[in-house]
Write a structure and sequence with these properties.
It contains eleven helices and eleven strands. By secondary structure, it is of the alpha/beta class. Strand 1 (3-8), helix 1 (16-29) and strand 2 form a beta-alpha-beta unit.
Length: 321
């Protein structure tokens, strides 16, 4: 293999640039030509390619987002679109592809490989930490730290004014991010898409907290489990004398400089992905398990099922006394 391509797809995650940098430099070190594909699978379809060299990725290790940019591209679900993408790779002389992204990107990478026998390696990058086969995804640690920093500031106000604060974080389908944030921020309640929670159950916990002498409380809600403004409104209506406020952290969780942990993980993943691809490995995802790098078949990744940690939920309950 003499020429590989790299693209980032789906939602951006801090650390994507670190992975790009590591993959490019690893490939160049082995005499491999590298092409960057702008705007993910859409750029692949539109032939939006740029050459990448060691200088192209200089000074990006501390930058959030992705220098290759990213856009969601539902059109890739069409077999005709995928066939055109494959043709573009062939025309450019690209012999293998690294795809950096989340669950949807893993599906796209697997489809490209399966249909055209084209070598593809996937790097998991998602602030939701929701890919099967890896203990952690690129961007997760940074997103948790970003959210906790914001919530620490909110807690100052909550305590000063004796308020209940509901903080909405990302997570439409999974609550891994919300649970980690809740534990790190010292929340009393966490609401997750996987475990629907009635507002009356939330209020019962908050009322019990008040009986114990707590003057302020924090509720973390994943966006797929409810909307913060509705929850705050219900609490104010059903808990006379309470003063509930809400904050939606939104896209600030995606941005910012990657933490050292995210940078190291992304660098490891980028190096491993390039090395694997060049050596002939395909249709797999690089990941980490028990602190060690692993290679997981994409078939396993896209059909695997992740579950919320009951141990961490129990830990949250114990700490909320």
């Amino acid at each position: 293999m003499k020429h590989i391509g790299i693209l980032t797809s789906g939602g951006d995650a801090p650390g994507m640039n670190c992975a790009i940098r590591a993959a490019v430099r690893t490939a160049i070190g082995q005499g491999i030509e590298v092409t960057g594909i702008l705007r993910g699978f859409r750029g692949l379809y539109e032939n939006d390619f740029i050459p990448l060299n060691s200088r192209s990725v200089s000074g990006i290790i501390n930058a959030g987002g992705t220098i290759l940019r990213t856009i969601r591209f539902p059109g890739f679900l069409s077999s005709d679109i995928r066939r055109k993408c494959f043709a573009n790779l062939q025309s450019a002389g690209i012999e293998g592809l690294i795809v950096i992204g989340g669950d949807g990107s893993a599906h796209g990478a697997h489809a490209l490989c399966k249909e055209f026998n084209f070598p593809v390696v996937h790097i998991p990058a998602s602030i939701d930490n929701d890919l099967f086969g890896t203990d952690e995804t690129i961007g997760f640690d940074t997103a948790v730290n970003t959210a906790v920093d914001a919530i620490d500031r909110i807690r100052d106000t909550a305590t000063s004014h004796e308020r209940i604060f509901i903080v909405e974080v990302m997570g439409r389908e999974h609550g891994f991010l919300a649970l980690e944030i809740a534990i790190a921020a010292g929340a009393e309640v966490v609401m997750l898409p996987e475990l629907p929670m009635d507002i009356d159950d939330v209020i019962a916990i908050l009322e019990e907290d008040r009986k114990r002498g707590k003057i302020s409380s924090l509720v973390i809600v994943a966006e797929g489990a409810g909307r913060a403004h509705n929850i705050a409104e219900a609490i104010n209506r059903k808990m006379p004398g309470s003063e509930a406020r809400y904050s939606v952290l939104g896209y600030i969780q995606r941005g910012g400089r990657p933490t050292y942990k995210t940078r190291v993980l992304a660098t490891m993943f980028g190096c491993e992905a390039a090395s694997a691809l060049v050596s002939g490995v395909s249709d797999m995802m690089v990941g980490v398990s028990g602190g060690k790098l692993v290679r997981v078949p994409l078939e396993t990744v896209i059909h695997g099922h992740l579950e919320i940690s009951r141990e961490k939920l129990e830990l949250l309950k114990k700490m909320a006394v």
